[in-house]
Amino acid sequence: MEFPAKRSLVQRFEGNPILTKEQVPYTVETVHNAGMTKADGEYIMVFRSHLRNGRSILGLARSEDGFRFRPDPRPFMVPSTDGVFSEYEEFGIEDPRICAIDGEYLITYSAYSKHGVRIGLARTADFKSVERIALITQADYRNVVIFPQKFQDRFVRLDRPHSELSPWSLWISYSPDLIHWGDSIVVMKPAPYHWDQMKIGPGATPFRTDKGWLHIYHGVFQTMDGAIYRLGTALHDLEDPSKILGIADEWILQPEDPWEVTGYVHNVVFTCGAIPERDGTVKIYWGGADTVMCVGTAIVDELVNLCLTNPRSAC
Length: 315
Ligand code: BMA
Description:
single chain; mainly beta; binds beta-D-mannopyranose
C-alpha cells in the first residue's frame, strides 16, 4: 500500500469564511450551501439562509474575483405563494444548484412541505428575475444536479432518491423538456465501512475535463458523536455520464476549520457548486457547519487522477 504525501488536495482560502450572516442586509441566521456560476464575468452565489422560524430562503451574492462577495439587498427566492409551488414550498427552499445551459441558468432546489422534500426547478436569464418551471421529483428526493450539456438531445441529471432497501444512493435520469424525467438507473451507492457509508448525494454541478465529467459529491459517516459530512469526487464518461470511470477512494475535504466543526450543525462541509477556471484549477465552494460559506482551490488534474488511481467500486 502506498501512502500519499501529506498535502491537502483542496487549498482552503485564507480569508474563509467568505460570507456570513452579518454581511447580509436582511435578517438571516445562516449563509450556506450555495449554488455557484459565472455570468457575464461575474461570480454568482445563490446561498441558503435559515430564517428565525427555522425555514430557509435563497439569497444572492456577487463577486469579481470569486472570493469577496457582496450580497444583494433583498432575497433572491422565497417560498412561492402561487399555485402548486406554494403547497410544496411551504416549509422552505434549500440547497440550490445552478446549471448554465442553452444561454440561461437552471436552478434546482429542495422544496419542503408537509408532504416531504422534493425538487423544484426554476430558470433565470440574468439573476434579477426568476421563473419556476416545474416540480421535477416526488417526495424523498434532495440534491439534484443537471449536467451543463445535453446528451442526444436530452437533459441529464444526477438525483438522490431514498429508500430503506437502497438508502441515499445516486441515480441518473433523462428529460427531453426539463419537465418529464425518466429512464432512471442507479449509478453509485454508499460504500460499506467507508467515509461515505451512510449517505451520498450529488454536490456541485459536474464540469467537463479532458478525461470525463468531474463530480464533487458529499458523503456522510455516522459516528457516536453524530454524522460527519465530507466531500469526495467521481469521474463520469464524457459521452455517457451514466458510466462512472472512477470514484476516488479518499475524501478530498473534511470539516477541520472551527467554522466547519462547530455551528448550526456540527462537522459539515457541504457543496452545491464549484467553478472550473481557465488555469486548470477549480474553486470549490462549501457551507461550513450549515452556518457560513467557504471556498478552496484544487488542481483539476489532481482530482481526476485521484478518481482513476485506486478507485472504490460504484455500486
Ligand atoms: C442534509 C441537508 C443539508 C445539510 C446537511 C447537514 O441532510 O439538510 O442541507 O447541509 O444535512 O446538516
